[in-house]
Design brief:
One of its GO terms (molecular function) is N-acetyl-gamma-glutamyl-phosphate reductase activity. This is N-acetyl-gamma-glutamyl-phosphate reductase. It comes from Micromonospora pallida. The protein is of the alpha/beta class and about 325 residues long. Helices cover about 25% and strands about 25% of the residues. It has eleven helices and 14 strands. Helix 7 packs parallel to helix 9. The two termini are about 35 Å apart.
Length: about 325
Amino acid sequence: MGIRIGVAGASGYAGGELLRLIAGHPEFDLVAATAHSQAGQPVSAVHPQLAGLDLTLAATDPAALADADLVFLALPHGQSAALAATLPSTVKVVDLGADHRLADAAAWQRYYGGTHAGTWTYGLPELPGQRVAIATADRVAATGCYAVATTLALAPLVAAGAVSPADVVVVAASGTSGAGRAAKAHLLGSEVMGDLSPYKVGAHQHVPEIKQATGATGLSFTPVLAPMPRGILATVTAVPATVDADPRAVLAEAYADAPFVHVLPEGRWPHTAATLGSNSCHLQVTHDVDTGRVIVVSAIDNLGKGAAGQAVQCANLMLGLPETTGLSLWGIAP
């Protein structure tokens, strides 16, 4: 018997990706998968890509998850805290939702509303000191998808004093799976295909998380819905803080020992298809020849490094396993 794993919210896109990764993990045994409206359905009926995974979705009840060694919460924002509070203290938890990411209760109230549930260890292992913090934690808040793409591009540059934290501009395009699986008119194929559309301009909920994780003090963030199922491409620009700083060298040094972050050779630019199905982030950096701003482009799979893959990476550390266990460093092509 391996490490016993439960998944709450297993019927969604992130939940389905978690099930796929857990099923292929050499140390994990999936013992419980729960859902709300899809409870009672076979997993393969909800996620056809998981044909042969012989498990029925249970109702989201603490009793169904209490015997697990670790539980992933892939629930809508605002729903994780109540369920986590009912689980035994012996059960480790990784929350893919936003409930426990923010340290500032006022920021939670402004961007999410409702009562702030408190702050857990932040689940981005590539930040300084976070691998150790995650490895010793019983409760970890996994990152937002836009947040990880932006933070990996920006945080080392701010920390090294290579760019000013006061003037950061991000434009990031995401596939439709980032909006979840619920039926919504604006996500219909006929609405999305052949179209790019911004949304939540100037008020996206990942802004306080990005500022918290990167040290940025002034951030303009514009998300764009792209006509693809999955992937994020983020373009991050900032004002150089010193003319002597080499942003490429800063990023290369920061991620020299990070197996999932790849600073690409000069002239090769990230694209989302190259990260599909992986837990990797691809980065490239240059200077704008007109303004002198530093430009970093970041690509991830929003359901991989942006959600389920990142959560499994954190779980590996929490359980004393190598962080790469059961995760792919390489994408799927074509």
